[in-house]
């Protein structure tokens, strides 16, 4: 962990706390990620401490100090303690923290930070509200309504758990014997004796390591990175929790982990660690118990048997228990008849219930008559199931097969949607009632499901039948059933793939081989050509799913003019696929959108609105999350969305300073409200829908009559940004909060301030009122959630648990649960009654920006800057559905001095090198590790390419395409990099407000300049290498000498963030592009602005100057690129037709060509003498091989998205358009 000789650090208040923290941390850890792993927090948390973006807790500083002391303790322990204590008190005094008197206080304070063995990570300030800590997670445990018998077994199991304190218990028995019912009943009885119950079915197997993590989450809901990733370390942590809490763990259907071949009881390879898990629970000291149910004993179980391990083998019911079990079936018979019935079917409860239905239906419940006159149902459970299922009607069989495909409790609505092309849809309810009476399906809280024994049997029958249908070209089940549900939750879809698709293919390959199997699928697909589309049903989609699993060439198959239902093409690379004329209403594709930062749902819950960093507005139908429409709503980030109370209108607020009102039926903008100065960060409607409240960067609270486009009131509410406004559910109180750490309460009628709530130590990002109590909840950058009694204006509760800024909150409709998310990428669900965390989800790969509880389902919906919308099962935190957007934006372009190579980097493409001398032009992609890079730079002196990714710069040799060096000194994400003209130095700037210069031969920082008051977005070297210019969020351009720490000049005039700067070829002028819609040309000598050019269409994000000095090119938030005369400022050309926004433009060195990066992973190449597009270079467009001509079932927004991502509407798929040379 330590890598340098240590000297005690020093603190300079002028550098700020963040700079000191970076120094302190770097003496102990090589990187922020290493520190984050050690403390169990997100690495972005450490990064933001060091950038002064969030307030660092004193416990973190103390923790670093104790680690430094541990290293010094063998040398000068007393002196080190004294010096570190003095240093801490200097820092603490400057930061407003309570001073420390002794080293013991330092150690105690340090113990409160990060990954520590403590109770759930929460502090309740009001002890009266706290409750005993319990976790009862029943997973998929059945709802037991009718339990009979098994009193001896229950007594025995209860004794083993409560008196003998057994640690591992196995309940073994044949399928259908009632193991699940017995153990669920036992768990309900043992609730008073335990504090944690976690019930899991292994019908959906988890690896042992995944199971451990699942349990750790449920027992103590900490962030996932707070737990070890290594199995052994995670197991040790798990045993520690089993010692701290009295836990009852249940693993049902353990045989799912075991192989079906000889010898019995052998684990599948991927589940072998379960043997080690059971052994550790059995042999190590703790106070908990795990119970497994299985049809066979796992190998190795005998080796762990001891005083703490028991096995109960479950046999059949006794005759009197059979009578109790079958009471609901109203059977009658004498004692010998009951005894014969019980004996004949071995007392198996499932078998007896199946037979009881036949006795009732055929013999009016007379057991003796059934035994005398009917052919007995003999044999094992599979034989009996065959006999029973053969008696079912066609519509009953159809529903049974659908339940076997769904593989989980399924609602009537889902089954009805599945049967959309079935003639039996109208009798669905009667069919379900019949199957329940037959004891073939079980009714569950979440719907209907199959007993695991019946599910397995039906799965085998389904595969056998499908093999025959495919081989003999007689489709039936293939038409009526989807073998894989594209709209199923991720884990279910994967189970369908493993349990149905893969075994079906294996059977076909085993019988016919690969070539014949492909020919059979081709011939089967061809049989559908003369049929009307409705008659084809699910068959074409099933065949496509089989082809995708086989990874065969799809050009061999003619899918045109067919229904392609239940096919998921979101994670598939499509080489060539012609879907001309197809019905794609149930096909899932990758949508195109950027990072999502705003979320809202309509009052009826049928529509979901989201918005992105690119100003896109996206509206989804919540039923299948189909994209209704997507429009470029604003020129900048859309920060907030709000539906009107009627749901007929939607308001959007943006960083471009505008509020827009949208008409939802047609998606038309019907009003634009403009008065804010700077960003608009939050909006909400009043209860009538007539007025809109808004707050933003200027600190003013505004009230609008939006229909009349009239500003009703403007109140200067805060001394800094207003980040959130919220209206109480009675409409009487308006709350506002922001960067000044304060929450103000306002009368919503006269706009008079009613009070102020102080308590946060950082920006307050989110506010939400309780729907049924006088409670206001707030969250902010200090990682805390405050619960306020806003009537009496007092803080009642503080919830702790997040490790970074909390950005979003939402309450369930009944106010019982609170969900929170933020910069630590986690979602936490809190019980509002007890204040206890219910669970923590490692939800996204970037900040969680929005949360809401669905009005129509039991789901929690989240969005993130990682371009994803995710739907979670609110009760369990299980991922149900995910929409992952694709962002093809080209961030940066660089061209070699000889015009031989063009290099590009993008959001979802690896860094790509284009050989401009080859014909056709060829692209060479570096490894996928170079995706998500924001900046690149090239020097021909050593053929080096510098790549900035997050806070690290990677140097690559272009000749061998291998990385050579990593530069890790930056304390924030790097946004711009540049080589000095001689190639000796690399300059970088970014989110930590600092410029760095490295010597590229040694990798050491030679200089760092700190002067900007915000993020630094752009930099450029002068042609002679003497000067460096930088621009950023503080609206200034700073000119630096290479060897001086203070700027030579500060150029002011811009009124917003400066995104791009570059020097003129003679080094005498600088051109800058800004969010204020202007391009400015500056004279270096006089430090005056020579010329201001107003950009016709929005913000300017990229500029470049030709090497002959005559022209300047600019691009930005519009799809047009402009070429200007550098002397007169006159527009020379407007190059239109780009896709999306343009982040980068580059002239060729001879000035003949201009390269422009588009938003869809393409580069437009313009021939400037003629003003025409020479060609388009395309990079990894996911649907470049897809044809969607004349398709149905797609909304206009979906079609536009597919075309954006490369899909063709011509008769043949795109064949690429990067041919020809320059």
UniProtKB/TrEMBL annotation:
Q: Which Gene3D superfamilies match?
A: P-loop containing nucleotide triphosphate hydrolases, YVTN repeat-like/Quinoprotein amine dehydrogenase
Positions of WD repeats: 631-672, 673-714, 715-756, 757-798, 799-840, 841-882, 883-917, 967-1008, 1009-1040, 1051-1092, 1093-1134, 1135-1176
Query: Per UniProt, which keywords does this protein have?
Result: Repeat, WD repeat
What the entry lists under InterPro entries is as follows: AAA+_ATPase, NACHT_NTPase, P-loop_NTPase, Quinoprotein_ADH-like_sf, WD40/YVTN_repeat-like_dom_sf, WD40_PAC1, WD40_repeat_CS, WD40_repeat_dom_sf
List residues of the AAA+ ATPase domain.
Answer: 165-324
Classify the source by domain of life. Answer: Bacteria
Q: Does the keyword Repeat apply?
A: yes
**What PANTHER family does UniProt report for this protein, alphabetically?**
F-BOX AND WD REPEAT DOMAIN CONTAINING 7, WD40 REPEAT PROTEIN
Protein name as it appears in the record? AAA+ ATPase domain-containing protein
Give the source species.
Herpetosiphon geysericola
